[in-house]
Amino acid sequence: MQRGMNDPTAGERNNPGAESNIQRLLAGWRNTDWPVVHVRHNSRTPGSPFWPGQPGAEFQPALAPLSHEHVVEKNVPDAFTHSGLERWLNVRGIKQLVIVGVSTSNSVEATARTAGNLGLDTHVVADATFTFAKRDYAGTYRTANEVHAMSLANLEGEYAAIIHTNDALTLLTAFRPYPLQSGEFSAY
């Protein structure tokens, strides 16, 4: 959740309450001392709002990591590719993920697909993610809600469970406490 995601040139988006839901989830995870991983996209394209050192590459203040929270740096949509995230999770025995953020049709979908392919118990929070309107391959304009719904449909079942914020907060009581004992699982 970097500042560049609020750039008006990104176009029409959906889920205007996504940031509030992410804040609720972040507070819930922090209150139960569950591990949290923040992902920062560093663009390889000069002039991008996510180019390192630009204001857009910084985290939104309300969603910024605490000093003890893990930050993954990536430069492709998938948070697992060339980032060390898989190893970080494996070292801690974490097998369950709750994914929030942006954009549903890009980084969220790419990351959830990899997580599912790795055999992780993956949850994507539909109302704590958002995306932008775009034209499909045939040139038909698709609203942000349509793009979002299709991305979630692509993930549902095969790669992840699609849930909502209240469901994710309920998971906090179902997951076992952190730190882990040998062979146990956790979530972030």
UniProtKB/TrEMBL annotation:
Location of the Isochorismatase-like domain: 1-144
SUPFAM superfamilies noted in UniProt: Isochorismatase-like hydrolases
Gene3D superfamilies per the UniProt record, alphabetical: Isochorismatase-like
Protein name: Cysteine hydrolase
Domain of life: Bacteria
Pfam families (UniProt xref): Isochorismatase
GO molecular function, one term: hydrolase activity
Keywords, in A-Z order: Hydrolase
